[in-house]
Every structure is written in C-alpha cells, then in structure tokens.
C-alpha cells in the first residue's frame, strides 16, 4: 500500500470515528430530571400577630341558657345583655338611660323563654337615641332579613353556650297598638328584638316600634 493510500484510509477512519461518536451522543438516553416536589396545600392566610377564631355558629347550645353578650356582625360586638324582670305594668324593662345603657341589650328573664328553650320568644330590647348614637339606631340602619344575631351565655350548670339566629322578619308597628306576636310563648323558638323607631314625638315618645324576629340556626351551620 502506498503512502497516499494509507493517508486516505486514515482520514476515512477518522471521519467514520467522528460520525460514530456524533451518533452515540445524539442517540444515547438522557437522564430524566427529578420532578419538582408538589406545592404544599394552600392554607388560610393569617396576618402577623392575628389569631384564627373558632366558628361560633358551628356548635349550637345544648341547653337553655342566660344570655350575657350579643354580637350582630357589622353592628355590635359582644354587647352586654342585662337580665331584667318585667316592671310593675308587666312590660319588659329596658337598659338604663345612660351612655352605657344605650350600648346594651335587655332580656326579659324567666318565666319568659331563654335562648335554647324549645318554644317561645326570647324577649330583647335596646334603646334608640335622638342623636342616632344608640344601639337601636344602628340596628335600624343595618339589621335586615337574613342578618345574623349571635348570642353567648351560660347554662345552669355553668357551661358556656352559644346560639346563632337568623332574622326572618322585620316588622314596624304603631307603639300604641302593641304586639301580641312579640310576647308569644307557645310558638317556635326565636328571638324577638324590639326598639323604638321614628318619628320621635317628644322625650321618650316614639310613634313606632321595630321588631326583628330571628330563628335559631341548625347544627353545623358555619359562621
């Protein structure tokens, strides 16, 4: 074999070797990269320093109880409830006429029904103020059918109880006409909340009364 032939053979061999290497690089299996780990499930966002509160309407009262505080979302939070007997004319008493009293509810004690009783109206009332600064004014402005009233209190054995109600009816009556419906003791269990409502005819004298009726929410209802 001549030198020229040997040189050409070497060149051909080199080219073939390069082609084989190129084919091997292109066709060899590539390792599969590890898949990214799944994102953790989304959690409820909590601002720094905040605390998640339990859902107050999830476990309703298991026994009749004395109401001590009421929350009406968007209107009042943990307002004090005064337990008061009826007066000498057999009318449920109202909170005192004072800066404190205008922020409180009054509740007519037994023999009128308690929250958690199987029947009858739980009788509540609150003040309306001429300058629109009382709890009754806020209720008149913001509590409509579908609104929620959350009642907290204590049962006879000292257990904390909560019962949530949803407004089913908002009624306006002439004060002098009264309302037998408000005092119902034999009907289904519900709240009956009454406040004075405009027009105001003079000190302590309002032409109308507004009454909200609210039914207890069923077990398991979310707050």
Number of helices, counting only DSSP H or I runs of 4 residues or more: 2
Low-confidence stretches: 31-47, 49-53
Terminal CA distance: 98 Å
Sheet having the most strands: 8 strands, mixed, barrel
Portion in helices? 10-25%
CATH topology of the domain at 65-216: Sortase, Chain: A
The average pLDDT score comes to 84
Q: Quick one: overall form?
A: globular
Order of helices and strands: HEEEEHEEEE
Summarize this structure briefly.
With 223 residues, the chain is of the alpha+beta class. Helix content is 15%, strand content 34%. The longest helix has 25 residues, at 3-27.
Verbal overview:
There is one protein chain. This protein has helices at 3-27, 135-142; strands at residues 65-72, 76-84, 105-108, 121-126, 148-155, 160-174, 190-202, 205-216. The protein is an alpha+beta fold and 223 residues long. It has a domain at 65-216: Sortase, Chain: A (Beta Barrel). An eight-stranded mixed beta barrel has the order 1-2-3-4-7-8-6-5. The longest helix is centred in the N-terminal third of the chain and has 25 residues, at 3-27. The protein is globular and about 125 Å long.
Protein topology:
Elements: H1 3-27, E1 65-72, E2 76-84, E3 105-108, E4 121-126, H2 135-142, E5 148-155, E6 160-174, E7 190-202, E8 205-216
């Amino acid at each position: 074999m001549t030198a020229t032939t040997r040189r050409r053979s070497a060149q051909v061999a080199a080219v073939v070797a390069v082609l084989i290497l190129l084919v091997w690089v292109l066709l060899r299996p590539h390792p599969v990269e590890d898949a990214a780990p799944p994102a953790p499930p989304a959690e409820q966002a909590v601002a720094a320093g905040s605390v998640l509160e339990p859902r107050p309407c999830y476990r309703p009262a298991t026994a009749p109880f004395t109401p001590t505080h009421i929350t009406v979302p968007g209107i009042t939070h943990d307002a004090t409830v005064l337990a008061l007997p009826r007066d000498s004319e057999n009318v449920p008493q109202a909170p005192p006429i004072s800066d404190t009293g205008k922020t409180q509810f009054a509740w007519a004690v037994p023999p009128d029904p308690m929250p958690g009783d199987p029947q009858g109206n739980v009788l509540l009332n609150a003040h309306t103020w001429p300058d629109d600064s009382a709890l009754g004014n806020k209720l008149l402005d913001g509590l409509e059918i579908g609104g929620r009233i959350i009642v907290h209190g204590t049962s006879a054995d000292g257990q904390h109880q909560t019962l949530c109600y949803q407004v089913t009816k908002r009624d306006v009556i002439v004060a002098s006409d009264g309302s037998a419906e408000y005092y119902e003791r034999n009907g289904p269990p519900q709240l009956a909340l009454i406040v004075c409502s405009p027009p105001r005819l003079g000190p302590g004298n309002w032409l109308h009364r507004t009454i909200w009726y609210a039914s207890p929410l069923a077990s398991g209802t979310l707050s």
